[in-house]
Design brief:
- Pfam families: Mur_ligase_C, Mur_ligase_M.
- Keywords: ATP-binding, Folate biosynthesis, Ligase, Magnesium, Metal-binding, Nucleotide-binding.
- One of its GO terms (molecular function) is tetrahydrofolylpolyglutamate synthase activity.
- This protein is of the alpha/beta class and about 450 residues long.
- The protein folds into 2 domains: about 5-290, Mur-like, catalytic domain (UDP-N-acetylmuramoyl-L-alanine:D-glutamate ligase), CATH 3.40.1190; about 295-435, Protein-Tyrosine Phosphatase, Chain A (Alpha-Beta Complex).
- The chain contains 15 helices and 16 strands.
- Helix 3 crosses helix 9 and helix 4 packs across helix 5.
- The longest helix is centred in the last third of the chain and has 27 residues, at about 410-435.
- The chain is globular and about 60 Å long.
Length: about 450
């Protein structure tokens, strides 16, 4: 039996305190530990698909997983960050990894890190290596890896991708990636490998992305050039190509409730990973895929982790397509290093009232600061709250039946509301159980 110091919570606390900075881009340290762990000796899966981009990574990964599993493939996915539980980051055959699997990965990383000259790793780097250790033990048909930040210097990029996917490019994480879109594009395109296909999931990517692929000799499959998606009243149609260049067409596909550009990219990436696409399996996968925190509806509430202007523009379009008879109220919480002005500007056409909330941590932005930005634009602020949970609790007693709420601005905002709801549900279950026992 493991002692308390080897629990998952203890390991996560240890990793958070182990490295002097939370983000320390570069592959030298990660590659050295990966080499010691034997992760570079042989492929961890039959095929590896790596997904980078500013927005749309999580939805692309989720649809890739759903599509592969409906075709009978074994899968492993690694994503970040998580909403409620660290276990969300690693999924093996469609299920969250249990604590024992994650702890075993951390122990393997720690042993390799301390072998010979000790190597310092960030929380994300250690988590990535631990996940790769677990994936290698399963040896799935398909490993789907989401880049955490950037691409070229991200820990995920320690492995060579068989297929690289770049979803979108926009300004975000400026402190690490800068504000130049061409430079950001080059960083994201750093996941590409010579001679291996690259899927470009937007027709508005900076020229640097395709230029990087060309310089590497990586075959390019670009949206609206090599593959296409066409919407129509009965659903949508995808047209693309397989790894041998043969034309493929899938018709009458259901709307997955996630960006169709990402769905089209997932189909193209899977086809390039040598998976024959069965129309019925693709329809089942897209009809059943769900991703918490991405256009997630719960009654009157819509939760989305979008936290930059590009993501906010998508949210505004989706809400405009689904008008309501009452007010749309935005429960907005954002970190201080995010473009709050741009997000508010994008959402303003579809939001009638705003409820800014404070977030915690060293990058926190207060509800008062957000209210100031909203006030400068003469936008209606109905309340200010000390946390996402407090904001949700206030709104729950002030909504009309025809109103709706958009919870957005940060993973922390969505996570705070989901955690509060989960606690309420558990309290209700405990009370019901207690009443039944009496």
């Amino acid at each position: 039996m493991r002692d308390a110091s080897s629990s998952l919570d203890a390991w996560l606390a240890r990793l958070e305190a182990a490295h002097p900075v939370g983000i320390d881009l570069g592959l030298d340290r990660v590659a050295e530990v990966a080499r010691r762990m034997g992760l570079l000796d042989r492929p961890i899966a039959r095929r590896v698909i790596t997904v980078a981009g500013t927005n749309g990574k999580g939805s692309t990964v989720a649809m890739l997983e759903a599509l592969a599993r409906e075709h009978g493939a074994t899968t492993a996915t690694y994503t970040s960050p998580h909403l409620l539980r660290y276990n969300e980051r690693l999924r093996l055959d469609g299920r969250e990894a249990d604590d024992a699997v994650l702890v075993a990965g951390f122990e393997a990383v720690e042993a390799a890190r301390l072998d010979a000259e000790p190597v310092s790793l960030t929380y994300f780097e250690a988590g990535t290596l631990g996940a790769l250790h677990a994936i290698r033990a399963c040896a799935p048909d398909l490993a789907i890896l989401e880049v955490g930040l950037g691409g070229r210097l991200d820990a995920v990029n320690v492995l060579d991708a068989d297929v690289a996917v770049v979803t979108t490019i926009a300004r975000d994480h400026a402190a690490y990636l800068g504000d130049d879109l061409e430079g950001i594009g080059r960083e994201k395109a750093g996941i590409m490998r010579p001679g291996r296909p690259a899927v470009l999931g937007s027709d508005r990517l900076p020229a640097s992305v395709a230029a990087t692929a060309e310089a590497l000799g990586a075959p390019v499959f670009a949206l609206n050039a090599a593959f296409f998606r066409e919407s129509h009243p009965a659903g949508w149609t995808w047209r693309g190509r397989d790894a041998r260049g043969s034309a493929l067409t899938l018709t009458d596909l259901p709307d997955p409730g996630l960006p169709l550009d990402n769905a089209a990219s997932a189909l193209q990436a899977l086809a390039l990973a040598d998976q024959a696409l069965d129309p019925a399996a693709c329809r089942r996968a897209l009809d059943g895929v769900r991703l918490p925190g991405r256009m997630q509806w719960r009654g009157q509430w819509c939760l989305d982790v979008g936290h930059n202007p590009h993501a906010a523009e998508y949210l505004a379009r989706r809400l405009a397509e689904r008008p309501c008879r009452g007010r749309t109220i935005a429960l907005l919480g954002m970190l201080a290093d995010k473009d709050a002005e741009g997000v508010i500007r994008a959402l303003a056409p579809v939001v009638e009232a705003w409820l800014p909330v404070s977030l915690e941590g060293d990058r926190a932005r207060s509800a008062e600061a957000l209210a100031g930005i909203l006030g400068d634009r003469n936008l209606a602020v109905v309340h200010r709250a000390s946390s996402p949970a407090a904001g949700a609790a206030w709104l729950a007693t002030h909504l009309d039946p025809e109103d709706r709420v958009l919870v957005c601005g940060s993973f922390f905002t969505v996570a705070g509301v989901l955690a509060a709801w989960a606690e309420e549900a558990q309290t209700g279950a405990d009370e019901a159980s207690g009443e039944g026992a009496r």
